[in-house]
Design goal:
This protein has 68 residues and is of the alpha+beta class. Helix content is 35%, strand content 32%. The chain contains 2 helices and 3 strands, in the order E-H-H-E-E. Strand 2 and strand 3 form a beta hairpin. It is globular. The protein starts with a strand and ends with a strand.
């Protein structure tokens, strides 16, 4: 993957929470970053990806938002 600008943004709860997961999640996350970088490159001629990590109080889930 060529160089890309990666920005991580965590909400306050995510900063103080430890999540244990299986390593099979890593290829999926890398694929999402790769796709977001490709879309960013097509749109802005620059590979920039912002990942926002937050917890949902209503549903038991972790929300990852990929933005370019």
């Amino acid at each position: 993957m060529p160089q890309l600008k990666l920005e991580l943004e965590l909400d306050e709860e995510a900063r103080h929470t430890l999540v244990q997961t299986d390593t099979s999640l890593l290829p999926v996350q890398l694929s999402l970053v790769e796709n977001a970088a490709r879309a960013s490159n097509e749109y802005m001629q620059e590979q920039r990806v912002k990942i926002e990590i937050s917890f949902d109080d209503f549903y038991s889930c972790i929300r990852l938002r990929m933005r370019d």
